[in-house]
Fold this protein.
Amino acid sequence: AQSVTQPDIHITVSEGASLELRCNYSYGATPYLFWYVQSPGQGLQLLLKYFSGDTLVQGIKGFEAEFKRSQSSFNLRKPSVHWSDAAEYFCAVGSNTGNQFYFGTGTSLTVIP
Amino acid sequence: GAGVSQTPSNKVTEKGKYVELRCDPISGHTALYWYRQSLGQGPEFLIYFQGTGAADDSGLPNDRFFAVRPEGSVSTLKIQRTERGDSAVYLCASSPGLAVLNEQFFGPGTRLTVL
């Protein structure tokens, strides 16, 4: 069965510091992987996605993620965090045999000045 | 252009009542999804429409939940005999095609509280 694990429930970083949010997935075939951000009162917004090809993908707002098949991971990174990045981040895997998405439980990011 | 809208934004009901939640997708989007997000959890897939038909309803938790999309645009999620465990934020998303290949655009959600 497909599943997504985000081991970190909450992370606090200082503004300007680097960020890495962890995501591990379980999926039998080549996965479609996504990162979404959810700000308070806002709908989920797609940051980036991976289907195939280059394992390092670039997204919006300066985010990137690296697909590592050997580790079943798709970690999200940003070199320098801004206060406006404070939000909830969700990793998701989409099935290529259907149209279902499986989301992790999310990581809440707090940015301190 | 307008994004995905959901009404009402908040709904408070009593146990045992019937509720309807509405989703207006982005114009022209053929795919529409419903998710349920409980407190502290990620969105949980409920049902997927392609056009007017429910292409995958395997995520609906039981037969109290039903969704329609009669004209291939607006969708309504219907919950009968509500239970306190149904309290959650219900999210709708639309996509120009298969969501694994296209971006899903999410609405702000409807917060359902069952007393």
